[in-house]
Amino acid sequence: MRLYLATSNPHKIEELQAMLEEAGLSIEVLTADALGGMPEVVEDQDSFSGNALKKAKALATRLPEDGMALADDSGICAVALDHAPGVYSARYAGENASDLDNLNKLLDELDEIEDPNWAGYFACHLAAVDASGQESVFVGECHGNIIRQPRGENGFGYDPVFVPEGHDRTTAEMSQEEKAELSHRGIATRKFIAWLKDGMTV
Ligand code: ITT
């Protein structure tokens, strides 16, 4: 079987590839580039699962018979902001916003609130779609706190302002392996790997 990662985010590709390769599955892990690139997808669904399925299905139209498309829709949810930015995490500060713009917008929104609740969580919904159109979704969440002063150089996106429950470092201060142990993407990916191992001859 060949698995095609339906994402154009290089950080997600790196994290997913590392976890899938470490799992020792006898599958080939490729990116959308092997199928001519990731098709343009408008992420207009109101749920992570809806957007993840939309991305996986878009790439699945190009799959070879033994292929499977895997898409990740993820984001950060702040309790004090009624779970925003959520599905809008990648464009919270506008359509072409950078990770830094989005992170600053999150901190600005929280600063608007007097004595805000800093609790939040990352969510990752992984959608798998095979060449016959069969769909499955795997969910992971990582709960913790958002912090006012960004810390750390690793990871991407909102990592510098997120400290997982039971830890005192941000996910940007952790190695990729440490982050994968506890992250939303790590949890969802391990569920996907278990499902693959359970149901398929790989
Ligand atoms: P694709 O749609 O091509 O996969 P994207 O970056 O646009 O890439 P999303 O629409 O799923 O992905 O948006 C996710 C955003 O949420 C991402 O841009 C980050 O800002 C944030 N995010 C998701 N996972 C994260 C993580 O592990 N660490 C930090 N920020 C994360």
Write the layout of secondary structure elements.
Blueprint: E1 2-5, H1 10-22, E2 28-31, H2 48-60, E3 67-78, E4 84-85, H3 99-111, E5 119-130, E6 135-146, E7 162-164, H4 176-182, H5 184-199
Parallel strand pairs: 1-2, 1-3
Antiparallel strand pairs: 3-4, 3-5, 5-6, 6-7
Bound molecules: inosine 5'-triphosphate.
Give the tags.
202 residues, alpha/beta, Maf protein, 7-stranded mixed sheet, 5 helices, 24% strand, globular, binds inosine 5'-triphosphate
Quickly describe the structure.
With 202 residues, this protein is of the alpha/beta class.
Question: How would you sum up this structure, described in words?
Answer:
- With 202 residues, the chain is an alpha/beta fold.
- The protein has a single domain (2-198), classed as Maf protein (Alpha-Beta Complex).
- The chain contains five helices and seven strands; from the N terminus they run βαβαββαβββαα.
- The protein has helices at 10-22, 48-60, 99-111, 176-182, 184-199; strands at 2-5, 28-31, 67-78, 84-85, 119-130, 135-146, 162-164.
- Helix 1 (10-22) links the parallel strand 1 and strand 2.
- It is globular.
- It starts with a strand and ends with a helix.
- Residues 7-9, 12, 43, 72-76, 89-90, 99, 102, 122, 155-159, 183, 185 line the site of inosine 5'-triphosphate.
